[in-house]
Amino acid sequence: MGEVEPTQGPVRCVDRVFGVDWGQVLHGLLYPVEYNYFAMVFPLEGGGEAWLILFVGVDCVEAVALRVVGCGEARKRVYSITDWPEVSRVDVEGDCVYAIVPGDPPYRLRAALEKLGVGTPDPGKASRLEPLDDLEVEEWLGAEVPGQGVA
Questions:
Q1: How far is the C-alpha of 55 from the C-alpha of 140, rounded, in Å?
Q2: What SS3 state is found at 139?
Q3: Contact (CB, 8 A) for 145 and 135
Q4: What's this model's pTM, rounded to 2 decimal places?
Q5: What is the spatial distance between Cα 146 and Cα 137, in angstroms, rounded to a whole number?
Q6: What is the C-alpha separation between 67 and 103, in angstroms, rounded?
Q7: Which residues pair with 22 in a beta bridge?
Q8: Residues 145, 64: contact at Cβ < 8 Å?
Q9: Is 37 in contact with 30 (CB distance < 8 Å)?
Q10: Radius of gyration of the chain (CA)
Q11: Weakly modelled stretches of the chain, pLDDT under 50
Q12: Phi–psi pair at 39, nearest 5 degrees
């Protein structure tokens, strides 16, 4: 019986999760920056935004979670996804609804992005790249936050 080969690199690297070639370029741009987390923000048809939360690790940019945001009229769009199996948490604050899709296992992110109409994330389709404070991400994701204690 042959030996099992170890998986190379972190499983959540965007290159591996989404089969893209821009992950290392993005890593080279973001690694020297003082923030550990960024959101690649995609506008959604029907209102709202999908925030793909990224962690800038030592070796790669990791896909941590997806935060779907809808405020005002767009909250109806987010309410419509709250029963999806990919969604682990829903928060309501004032006029806004937030749905969280954890990045582990990675297929949840791929499935949710497909259902939302984003498909495979591409920086060219994103409306912006938003730096995120570690405490902000921890508040949103709670115990699901990876990279804690990682410099």
A1: 14
A2: helix
A3: no
A4: 0.85
A5: 10
A6: 10
A7: none
A8: yes
A9: no
A10: 15
A11: 1-9, 148-151
A12: -120, 130
Token couple for 147: 């990279």
Cβ-proximal residues to 104 (8 Å cutoff; 6+ apart), any chain = 12, 144, 146
| Three-state DSSP class for residue 51 | strand
Taking the C-alpha atoms of residue 43 and residue 48, their distance in angstroms, rounded to an integer, is: 6
Q: Residue 33 region, left (φ>0) first, then alpha (ψ -120 to 50), else beta?
A: beta
Q: How far apart, in Å, do the first and last CA atoms of the chain sit?
A: 40
Q: In angstroms, what CA-CA distances link 129 with 30, 54, 62, 115, 125?
A: 10, 10, 15, 22, 11
Residue partners of 136: CB distance under 8 A and separation at least 6: 37
pLDDT for 40? 95
d(CA 98, CA 107): 20
CA-wise closest residue to 66 among 80, 47, 46, 87? 87
Q: How many residues belong to the chain?
A: 151
Q: Are 100 and 87 in contact (CB under 8 A)?
A: yes
Question: Which amino acid type is present at position 68?
Answer: V
